[in-house]
Amino acid sequence: MQILHPFAGSVQQYTEQLADPDCYRPGYCPQCQTKHPLTAHGFYTRTLIDATFDGIIRVRRYLCQECKRTVSLLPEFVLPYLRSSLTVIALFLIARLLQAQTLHGSAQTAPPPMPYQRGQFWIRRFRAQAEALCATLAALTQPAPAPDFVHRALAMLESTGWVAAHRFLFAGVRCHLLGWPRGLAPDGRRAAFSSAAAPA
Ligand SMILES: [Zn+2]
What we know:
- This protein is globular.
- The chain is built from six helices and four strands; from the N terminus they run E-H-E-E-E-H-H-H-H-H.
- By secondary structure, it is an alpha+beta fold.
- Helix 5 crosses helix 6.
- The chain has a four-stranded mixed β-sheet.
- The longest helix has 22 residues, at about 115-135.
- Strand 2 and strand 3 form a beta hairpin.
- The structure holds zinc ion.
- Zinc ion binds near residues 29 and 67.
């Protein structure tokens, strides 16, 4: 299970504090609710593209001694299963969908420069997710008057703040800001039937 790391800061600051397993050790198991601190259980690595970072970060994992399941602490500047940081994705979506810049122009908005096809993929997923985002984010902010769900969702994300919205969506209702990839159950668990279909 992935939960969000209760840490707000830069990629660099995140990397620096990772050495100490006690720093953000969960005091209970979010899966079986046992009230014992979890045991440090190594790391996994994932790629990350951010404005000033393009490389591999480590994600700390903990093990529950009671249910034997692991919990990983994902920093809140990343979205599960996507390489680019939340900031990079947000800047692209705003440029393309709110400011109506061209695909190519939008792809240059958020450093580092990237192939515009990556942005098209985010837009497809965001469009599919927009109505659900409007409904869910209404718990945090007033629904803005807008011509469609895509514009309304963007306005609500802007007024809430993208990281704050992601924190609420992911930690509160297990919702992925861009929708869970195919092959994963609605809450991000690998679906039983999906052994052949790897998540995109
Ligand atoms: Zn447990």
